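Researcher: Good morning. I'm working through a list of sequences from a screen, and I'd like to move beyond sequence-only analysis. For each chain I'm collecting a predicted structure so we can compare shapes side by side. This is the next one on the list. No need for commentary yet; just the structure.
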Amino acid sequence: MAVVTSPTGVFSKAEFDAIVAQGRAGVGPALVKLAGDATTQPCRHRVPISDYYVAAALLAADGRVFIGRNLEIDDLSDSMHAEQSALHHAVSEGARLPVIRVGITKPPCGLCRQILSETHRSQELLVDVEDTDIASTPLPQLLPTAFTPAVVGKHSIGERSQGEALRYGAMTPHPAPVTPLEEATHTACIHRSLSCWMEAPAAVGLELRSGEVVVGVFIESVAHNPTILPATGAANKVLLRGHSLEDVVRAAIAYCPSPRLDHEGSARRLLGKLCPHLTHGATVVIREVKQASARL
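Model: Good morning. Structure tokens for this chain:
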């Protein structure tokens, strides 16, 4: 079967249903194939350390499939694994969860099993891994007795309805007009970032030469370590869409200030590594989002 890819890294329900029907092997093998096909586009990965390509294909409850690819930064703690990438891709694009199934090119590491276990109804999530005996395998078999959000009384990723999500106020006043980049970043911070412990949502938006805006969001892990940072997520999505990070011309950061978390400093540090061509002041717009109320 021919290589199948998407220019945006997202397959609609109709597109995926057609791929499943054409392959005649079922949903799991179709996801594994899409993940495998994703590794044939090395320009959409960023792996300067390992030169090792891993990809994942995540099926959300709305029927869409989101591709994820690994991204490496010299500080490995800031890197993003393919499973994290696929989950962030789905959450930041407003996919309806729970995650139904994930196809991966390599067995998931402990961190990725953890972040997947934090999604809504993760006990029903099925995992398929290329060239292994992991096929139609329930996630709890790969991570039994998991440390899930329910253990500490927190909502899982995708469990909250829009009406139950954190609610934050308007941007702080700024003399310049609000641009599409700033608006998209602010909206993602309010509606798509998830912060279970610190109640400090954040988003980073990147504007490309073409005018396209790509946004990454903060997804805080209940176990802390698999937490996804918005600058990493945004850069990963730029690559997922087939662009170069050198195409980024402007960045915006929206966040709820927290005494325990320096979103601005973290975002600036990562943007300095991922998009070093951006000037420090002229292309990065800071927006603080005032917290109005929170319901967790």
